Amino acid sequence: MRAVRYTAAGGVITDGERVLVLHRPSRNEVRLPKGHVEAGESPHEAALREAIEESGYTDLETVADLGRQVVKFVFQGTHVIRDERYWLMRLRSPQQLERRPADLQFTPDWMSWDQALAALSFEAEREWARRAREQAAEV
Fold first, then answer.
1. How far apart are CA 116 and CA 21, in angstroms?
2. pLDDT given at position 94
3. How far apart (Å, rounded) are the C-alpha atoms in residues 34 and 82?
4. Is 14 in contact with 136 (CB distance < 8 Å)?
5. H or E element in which residue 136 lies
6. Structural domains in the chain?
7. What is the mean pLDDT of the segment spanning 20-26?
8. Which of 75-79, 101-105, 130-134 has the largest mean confidence?
9. Pairing assessment for the beta strands 29-31 and 18-24 based on DSSP bridges
């Protein structure tokens, strides 16, 4: 089986007690914002770029580094090994409630922590949400 390894980075975006999740109707998934780290880009820069592109919220603040985890899975006959980095992020000001158009493959939705943990499609992303919830309680 063919194997692919890459680095991805993303953010758990919060606003008070709410967490932003992304519905992806084409795959019937609920996700957190993340994507590939591009050449010449740091994981943190990629996380912020992807969070803005996929959520539509442009004025985000990084609150804490949530660390790293390696996620392994098979997708369309390819063994994927993804090094993931995530950051806890939050909206900076009330103006942010007005969004620019987000990536069309996603529909952003605000949920409570418990709702988000129940709704997220993948265990790796539930782990990021758990880490973010712990960090958010400390900040």
1. 7
2. 55
3. 12
4. yes
5. helix 123-138
6. 2-94+102-134 (3.90.79.10)
7. 92
8. 130-134
9. antiparallel
Residue in 78, 81, 80 with CA at minimum distance from that of residue 70: 81
Taking residues 96-101, what's their average pLDDT?
Answer: 54
Phi–psi pair at 94, nearest 5 degrees? -60, -25
Which two structure tokens, joined as six digits, stand for 138? 């400390």
Query: CA of 131: how far to CAs of 87, 88, 98, in Å?
Result: 10, 9, 27
Q: Look up tokens 């997220």; give the residue.
A: 120
Task: Round to whole Å and give the CA distance between 115 and 111.
Answer: 6
The token pair at 128 is 């990021």
Distance CA(139)–CA(127), nearest Å, equals 19
Q: Model confidence at 48, in pLDDT bands (50, 70, 90)?
A: very high
Q: Phi, psi at residue 59, to the nearest 5°?
A: -110, 75
Task: Say whether 3 sits in a helix, a strand or coil.
Answer: strand
What is the spatial distance between Cα 93 and Cα 97, in angstroms, rounded to a whole number?
8
Burial class (CB in 10 A: 0-12, 13-18, 19+), 66: buried
